[in-house]
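Comment on the following before class.
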Amino acid sequence: MTNEVILQVKDLKTYFTVDEGLVKAVDGVSFDLHKGETLGIVGESGSGKSVTNLSVINLIPTPPGKIAGGQVLFHGKDLLAMPQAEIRQIRGNKISMIFQDPMTSLNPFLKVSTQMIETIVLHQGLDKDAAKQKAIEMLKLAGIPAPEKRIDQYPHQFSGGMRQRVMIAMSLSCNPEILIADEPTSALDVTIQAQILEIMQELTKRLGTAVILITHSLGVVAGTCDTLCVMYAGRIVERGPTDVIFEDPKHPYTKGLIRSVPRLDVENSERLYSIQGQPPNVIDLPDCCPFYPRCEKAMDICKKKYPAIANFEQGRAVSCWLYSGAKDE
C-alpha cells in the first residue's frame, strides 16, 4: 500500500423511491482508497455495502434508484458526472467487480471463452486470438486446471468455486487499478473460501491492484484487509486500520460484531453473544442514531440527533455520541 489516493468517495448518497417511502440505502458515505490497499466494508445484510459500491461504478438502476449527492473521484475525476460512454471505458477496465453469485453473473448461454474474450478485446484492443491466449493465462493464474480445454465450456460445467475463479480471472484480465469484490466467498464452503481469498490476494498483489472487499465475515476481514469500514443503516459508523479496530473497537456496533465471533483461543461455556434486536427499516429513517434501540449505552441524545464524526489518531473515525462530546440529556 502507498500513500497515493486513487479513489475518493465523498458524502455519497443513494436513495430509492418505493411505494412505502424513501429508502436512504446510502446516506453520506465517505472513504479513501490508496494504491495497493485492501479496504474491507463490513456490516449486516441491508446496511448498504453493495449499494455503495454499485454507486461507485454508476450501476444503480434508475428508477427506482437515484444517486442523490456526493462525489466519486477516480484520479481526481468525478465518475458520477461522467457521460455513460466515458464511464463504460473505466468500468471493467480500470475498475472491475466480482459479484456475489457467479452463476447469475456469467451468461449461461455463452461459453466462458466468449465472455472473457469480449471483455479483453473491448478494453485492451487485442485481436481475438491474442485475447483468448490472455484469457487462458488468467484462468491458469486463477487455479483452473487444463484452462486450454475448460475455456470453451459453459458456466454450468464448472463448480461454484471454479465459477468464482472464472469471475476473478475475468475481472483481473484487464489489469484494473481497483477490484471491487462483493462477498466473493459467501456461497462457498470454508475450504474453498480460503482458496479463493488466497488467489485474490496473490493476483491483486502481483498486479498492484487495490481492492474493496465487501463481506459480513469479520474473519475474512481480519486476514486480508488493511483498512476497515463498518457500515450500519447506510452510513459508516467506524473507520480505521483493521488491526487497530480489532484491538480496540470503539463504536458499540463494532464491539458487538467482534464479540459475536466465536473464539477458539478462549474457554467459554456461555452462550454465543449476539446483538439484540434487528437492523432498522431504512424507509424514511429519522435523523437520529439508528443503532440506539439495540445499543447498551444509548443516551437520550441518541434518539434525537445523528452523532457527529469523532476523529482519533491513526486515521480512525467514529460516529457515536460517546465520543462526540455529548452528555446524557
